[in-house]
Amino acid sequence: MAELRTSRNGDSVEAFLAAVPDPGRRADAVAVCSLMRAVTGAEAAMWGVGIVGFGTRRLRYDSGRELDWFDIGFSPRKQALTLYLPGELDEYGDLFGRLGPHRAGKSCLYVKRLADVDAAVLELVLLRAVETARLE
Hints:
The protein is an alpha+beta fold. The protein has helices at about 15-20, 25-40, 95-100, 120-135, and strands at about 10, 45, 50-55, 55-60, 65-70, 70-75, 80-85, 105, 110. It has a single domain (about 10-135), classed as Alpha-Beta Complex (Aspartate Aminotransferase, domain 1), CATH 3.90.1150. The strands form two sheets. It has a seven-stranded antiparallel sheet with strand order 1-2-3-6-7-9-8. The chain has a two-stranded antiparallel ribbon with strand order 4-5. The longest helix has 18 residues, at about 25-40. The radius of gyration is 14 Å and the shape is globular. The model has no long low-confidence stretch (mean pLDDT about 95).
């Protein structure tokens, strides 16, 4: 079986964040990193070349496949700050309705700018995500 490209490694989170080219996206990434550290109680770690993750859990798929993954994480992508959340995102609908401008994919929350969303609601989203990850 091929090795998973997005696995935990020893690369520097600080160097990764410092290298984000857009100053606004970099500031948002540093802020989200701090918030995720506070919410999880875990240190940030690089997963692959572009994802910062917090915590570790063992995922088991119905197919029997297993892999190590983070509880929650983010990536400062060019188009949006991407937050990786566990579970079905429709479980977050009550909070997403109060969050502010965002998009949601299958397991990703996309935020253009942190200043555009309600910080207290984002913290509640992350707290629920950590709870969900630790129950899986």
